[in-house]
Amino acid sequence: MEPVDSWLEREMELNKSHEDILTRREALLRNSEWQLGANEAKNSNLALSWTRAKKRNQILLQKLSKAEDILKQGTNSSRTFTDLQASYWKMVEKQLPEWKQEVKKQRRSTTPR
Predict the structure, then answer these.
(1) CA–CA separation, 12 vs 18, rounded Å?
(2) Alpha-carbon distance 43 to 31, whole Å?
(3) Could you read off the pLDDT tens digit of each residue along the chain, which spans 113 residues?
(4) What is the DSSP letter of 1?
(5) In this structure, how many other beta carbons lie within 10 angstroms of the beta carbon of residue 68?
(6) Which of 1, 14, 79, 80 minimizes the number of CB atoms within 10 Å of its CB?
């Protein structure tokens, strides 16, 4: 009878191992389902973030384009300003000797002797 007892004991051990394996399998399946749900939520959030980032980038590109246009317009007026400034300094250089003479005359006339 001992062989039957050993077989029964072995079968009980195997049944217990089988139950443990099924319990671990069930836990792993629940964990996998939970992770799958979390990944789906994460992917949904990523898609939403990507859409928002794309819209934000389009708005930034539009603002950048407007700023470039303004700068280009400013460059044209800047050229006008540069031309005006150059003309002013040419006039100053041309008039400087005359101004110096006038200043000398005024100093002489106001200086007490």
Answers:
(1) 10
(2) 18
(3) 577 788 999 999 999 999 999 999 999 999 999 998 888 888 888 889 999 999 999 999 999 999 888 877 766 667 788 888 899 999 999 999 998 998 888 888 877 65
(4) -
(5) 10
(6) 1
